[in-house]
């Protein structure tokens, strides 16, 4: 199942990462993210992983390749990605992964969807203000 994307917070999008995905689902997801990024100068992304399962290693590698391709195409338009993970241990693990291999945009790993949406909204506002030369945030 391709992750559903809620655009009601535009230009922040909320992705509900499903418990089970195929490589085709991953491909479709990243095609959709790149298309959304092409519609704005500053896109904030929330990835709610509350219900996600643990994908097998081949699918994780496939997703990593898709993510790298997305960086190349849309990285400058993506101003921040917030992951929602309820487990403090798993949050720490993902934070460590981003320290070791940082993407070209800011990331945060938080415990609630509300916190993630607020953070992504602030990132979009800061990027938009910087783009327009405004000091107002």
Summarize the structure.
The chain has 137 residues and is α/β, with parallel strands linked by helices.
Q: Would you give an account of this structure?
A:
The structure is a single chain. Helices cover 48% and strands 20% of the residues. It contains four helices and five strands; from the N terminus they run E-E-H-E-H-E-H-E-H. It has helices at residues 23-37, 57-74, 88-100, 113-132; strands at residues 5-9, 12-16, 43-48, 78-84, 106-110. Strand 2 (12-16), helix 1 (23-37) and strand 3 (43-48) form a beta-alpha-beta unit. The protein is globular, with a radius of gyration of 14 Å.
Tags for this entry?
five-stranded mixed beta sheet, globular, 137 residues, alpha/beta
Question: How do the helices and strands line up, and which of them pair or pack?
Answer:
Layout: E1 5-9, E2 12-16, H1 23-37, E3 43-48, H2 57-74, E4 78-84, H3 88-100, E5 106-110, H4 113-132
Parallel strand pairs: 2-3, 3-4, 4-5
Antiparallel strand pairs: 1-2
């Amino acid at each position: 199942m391709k992750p559903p994307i809620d655009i009601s917070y535009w230009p922040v999008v909320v992705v509900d990462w499903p418990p089970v995905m195929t490589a085709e689902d991953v491909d479709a997801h990243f095609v959709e993210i790149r298309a959304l990024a092409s519609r704005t100068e500053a896109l904030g992304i929330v990835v709610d992983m509350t219900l996600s399962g643990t994908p097998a290693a081949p699918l994780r590698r496939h997703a990593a390749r898709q993510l790298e391709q997305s960086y190349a195409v849309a990285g400058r338009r993506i101003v921040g990605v917030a992951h929602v993970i309820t487990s403090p241990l798993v949050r720490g693990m993902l934070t460590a992964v981003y320290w070791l291999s940082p993407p070209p945009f800011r990331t945060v790993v938080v415990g609630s969807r509300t916190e993630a949406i607020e953070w992504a909204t602030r990132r979009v506002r800061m990027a938009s203000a910087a783009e327009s030369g405004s000091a107002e945030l």
